[in-house]
Amino acid sequence: MVRRLAVCLFPSHPLVSSEFDQRLDPARFVLQTVRPEVGPGGTVDSSRLPEADVYVVDTHAPRPVTESLVAGIFARFPQARVITLADEFGETNAFPLLRLGAKGLVTYAQAPGQIAQALEAVANGGYWVPRPLLSRFVDSIISGLGSRQFATGTTQLSKREKEVLDLLLENISNKEIAQRLHISERTAKFHVSNLLAKFSVRRRADLIVLWFQNPPAAS
Question: What domains does the chain contain, in order, with CATH numbers?
Fold first, then answer.
C-alpha cells in the first residue's frame, strides 16, 4: 500500500483551501490546513508548526509574513519541502523564496492541473520551478559568486568528482571541464552524470540550486 503524503497548507487567499480540498485525492494525500499566528512586524511563530512531507505556502499574504513563514518552516524542520503559490512568479518574488529554500513555484492558474504532480515531485526531492526562471536564478547565483569556488567538504565524493563539481557549479560545459582538468570530454561527461545521480537530480541547474540551498560544511 502506497503511503499518503502529508501536506500542510498555509492559505491566505479564501479560495485556496477549497481548491485544494477539491483537487487532492484523499487516497494519495492527507491535507491539513493551518493559519499561522502572525506577530508584530509580520513575524510568524513557527514553534507550533506541524510536521509534514510538503508545506504549501500561499503568498497572497504580505511579503514579510510569507518570508517569515517560509524561514520559520526551515528553522523548525531543516529538511522541509516547500511549495509556494502566487498569482505569478518573476525574479522579484521568486528569487527570495528560492534562496530561503523553496523547491516549488506554482501559480494559482496552474494549481488545478499541476499541484498533485508538484507535491509528489517536491516530496521526492525534486524541483517544480519553471525552467526559464530557474535558469535566471542559477545565472544570478553564478554572477554573484564571481570566481569564488564552492567548498567541497563532502566525503561521499572522490577527489576527481570534487574537482568536476567545482567546475560544474561554475556552469561551464563538459568540454570546458575536460580542458580545465586535462581529461577527455567523454570522461568529463561520465563524471557529471555520476554527480547528478549521486545528488538525485536530473539537470545541472537543479544541482546548482540544491548545492546553493544546502551547502555542506567544509572539511
Answer: 5-129 (3.40.50.2300), 136-213 (1.10.10.10)
